[in-house]
Write a structure and sequence with these properties.
By secondary structure, the chain is mainly alpha-helical. It is 64% helix and 4% strand. A two-stranded antiparallel ribbon has the order 1-2. Helix 2 packs across helix 4 (99-121) and helix 2 packs across helix 7 (199-220).
Length: 222
């Protein structure tokens, strides 16, 4: 079904919105706990496990989620990205992620996934050791620990760019990108197909989330 011009359209399904805010809280908590150190490292590790489950969920949801949560809706080639940057008439227009936003999504998923996975093998050579560190050599564990520490700066940089883009769109283009991620709805000029966001879709998300959490729990408790 199509909407009338200048209408409110359901863009982000509830599972996508919950993922977004839970991942944000998890990343913040991970940075806080690692800076506190000591016994807080136990919570740092737990938040890392949560982050891994969340990213795993988002990868699966990129194929099974609502219309605009699917990777196919925001997988743009170099030509489309350049056209968007130049503001040409044939540049992609979608209620979901624009070409620059898509780069941010893929970038953040990649760096958080690497941070979560590398943390499983990391150690501080004092008191903390990732649950899978014993399965690799001390040299590889040390290398992954080094990259685990370096990757935090890349995460901070991408988060800063993400927040900067939100502020830019709010001030320069008068477009609120936060509200749709809270309510799920976005004001669209012209016509756009809404995303599915019903009970069966949410049940599907719950099953996917449970499966991802179970797999991560199995991995870290080996």
């Amino acid at each position: 079904m199509q909407t009338s011009p200048h209408s409110s359209v359901r863009v982000w399904d509830l599972p996508t919105r919950l993922f977004h805010w839970l991942l944000a809280l998890t990343v913040i908590g991970s940075f806080v706990t690692v800076k506190l150190g000591g016994n807080w490292m136990v919570w740092h590790a737990r938040l890392g496990f949560v982050a891994l489950a969340l990213v795993s969920f988002r990868v699966v949801w990129g194929f099974l989620g609502g219309r605009y949560a699917r990777f196919s809706s925001f997988l743009f080639g170099p030509g489309a990205i350049l056209a968007y940057l130049r503001g040409t008439p044939d540049a992609p227009r979608t209620p979901g992620h624009n070409p620059l936003g898509s780069l941010s999504v893929f970038g953040l998923l990649a760096v958080v996934a690497f941070q979560s996975v590398s943390g499983l093998f990391a150690n501080d050579e004092i008191a903390f050791e990732g649950p899978l560190a014993r399965f690799v050599s001390s040299g590889l564990s040390a290398t992954l620990t080094t990259w685990h520490r370096r990757d935090q700066f890349l995460i901070l940089a991408l988060v800063a760019l993400h927040v900067g883009a939100i502020v830019f769109y709010r001030l320069a283009r008068r477009e609120n990108l936060v509200r749709p991620m809270l309510t799920g709805d976005k004001d669209v000029a012209g016509t756009a197909l809404p995303s599915r966001d019903d009970g069966p879709l949410r049940l599907r998300a719950l099953l996917v989330a449970a499966a991802c959490a179970a797999i991560v729990a199995w991995i870290v408790n080996r």
